[in-house]
Amino acid sequence: MNFAFVYPTTMVVEYGDTHEYRRCLRSLFQMQSDNYKGVTEDDAYDEETRDEMEYDDIAAVMALDYIYAKTKDNEVFRELYLLGAATMLSEDPEIGLAVLMSYDYLRLFHRCLIWFVENPTEFTRETSVFKDLVAKFV
To answer: Whole-number mean pLDDT of the chain?
Structure first.
């Protein structure tokens, strides 16, 4: 199934545990159940294993590619990507993007993306949400 990804700027990203985080990520990436092999309730898998098996790789790749393509040339996002990558002893900005989508950073990174999508020229190092996200790395 092909669909054009559009970043969901009206989505509220809020979670208190891993299960809620995964639900947010699936919604954020606009995952489609027909893009993965479903697991029935009768299968002998625990909930976490079932959740991992029912992950829409296609939607995840499309979402991450979209986000990276829209932000890779912005110096503020490049800085964020390098901060994220450094946590994995890397300088690869795409690794940094993956880190920023992780449990510890997604709430603030989502807010950065919303700000950027809605006000691209106003998203700077002085933007409060940028400062809040950078502070998590210090």
So the answer is: 90
